[in-house]
């Protein structure tokens, strides 16, 4: 019996890598876009290319049963770069799917799309969602909250601080979180679902009602690392935003804390919307967050990241 074929962007990244592993284990053959040469891997056909190379995207989608778009940009210096990496790239992937006759499309967005006026990142993710909804494809959109797990660099700093017992945090607010393997399991389930999830926008999380305060999440990380207590200090929004302006002035295009990112971090509500979780018959969180944090810490330690 021929394995179903899943075309995937972002497979060499954090979320995409976990999803690729899950998909292959579930019996999919994955056609995966890559900028750099990759080692041969059972169940995977690597397609050389990038999101701005239309022929490569056509090769990626050819012969596939579903296209899953995970790749995107998170921290680039200009609005135009966000538009190119998130909105225009999504349009290119959709065009490749349509040209190849693929009708099923799963798009990984972000909670930031709920706040398009807050940051260039959120604006570009909202633009990408608009393009997906107008595509005429059988689409599903997934808006993950903060994603953590082995291999992640975005949340590594909070793990490092919590392990030391002192954590600098964003201004007072709340967030949802999801373990990367749980998100990957959802994405693979959506690949197989061609009915209930079509036309839906999902905001999955770890199942914690009302999400986490930044302090409670930092302390949960500390407990997973063996710390009985983590002291926390919330950085005022004005200070955070000033830091974004300063980092951009000093490091220019290499800035990590840009004004755009500072506005995003300072927003008080990044909690998954109540009622927007996928239906339980399709997916529900299975791994307790404390266990997922502990596994993440074990991985970081094995790799000498902590």
Q: Your description of this structure?
A:
With 306 residues, this protein is an alpha/beta fold. The protein has a domain at 5-145 and 177-205 and 274-286: Rossmann fold, CATH 3.40.50. Helices cover 41% and strands 17% of the residues. It is built from 10 helices and 14 strands. Helix 4 (120-133) links the parallel strand 5 (104-108) and strand 6 (138-142). The radius of gyration is 19 Å and the shape is globular. The mean pLDDT is 93.
CATH class of the domain at 5-145 and 177-205 and 274-286: Alpha Beta
Strand order of the largest sheet: 3-2-1-4-5-6-11
Weakly predicted, low-confidence segments: none
The average pLDDT score comes to 93
Secondary-structure element pattern, one letter each: EHEEHEHEHEEHEEEHEEHEHHEH
Large-scale geometry: globular
User: What name is given to the CATH topology of the domain at 5-145 and 177-205 and 274-286?
Assistant: Rossmann fold
Number of discrete helical segments: 10
Largest beta-sheet details: 7 strands, parallel
Named CATH architecture of the domain at 5-145 and 177-205 and 274-286: 3-Layer(aba) Sandwich
Assign the structural class, choosing from mainly alpha, mainly beta, alpha/beta, alpha+beta, or little secondary structure.
alpha/beta
Q: What is the total tally of β strands? A: 14
- Helix coverage percent of residues? 40-55%
Distance between the termini: 45 Å
